[in-house]
Amino acid sequence: MGKCNFAIKGEDEVLKLENTVLTIIDVQGKLATLMYQKEEFFANVIRMIRGAMALKVPILWNEQLPDKLGPTIPEIRELLPDMEPFNKSTFSCCGIDSYVDQLKSLDRKQILLVGMETHVCVYQTACDLIRMGYEVYLVADAVSSRTSENKQLGIEALKQVGARITSVEMALFEMMQVAEGDAFRQIVKIVK
Length: 192
Known about the structure:
By secondary structure, the protein is α/β, with parallel strands linked by helices. The protein has helices spanning 29-33, 38-54, 66-69, 74-77, 97-106, 118-131, 148-160, 168-176, 181-191; strands at 20-25, 59-64, 86-88, 110-116, 135-144, 164-166. Mean pLDDT is 91; it is low at 1-11.
């Protein structure tokens, strides 16, 4: 019960609450304001963060050259007051030893990715994570690029390399498995 009856890219696992990590990639500075459908994108990243917090899913937060591109947008930064982002100059988050070390220390194999830009930093992070043996779940409604074409190109390329495509609501309910309890009530409020 709760499992799909078919294999996905050789896997028969569904997203498991106890095996998942959320990674936030580079939602920062002026560049964030140039994203395709930015209001919807920001709202969905915020929903995913709130959902992860309600379900006690670990969150790893990254910023690309914050001294040049600026900090994470205030709406997201305010949700993470007790956290500090991993600062990077590489496009892939896996280019930061401290990110990789923290991820390995969590001992979880399913990674939800949100952030920007889909065709650059999100894509390169996902490719590296897949090469490292992680299952990558791209939260398609919580990623963006400056153009819809580049967003879609990134999503399609990630499908080809083995990432699973999901959405905020799909991922949160897939991790929960049951429609009951306090966490369920919190998630329902978050996705409304």
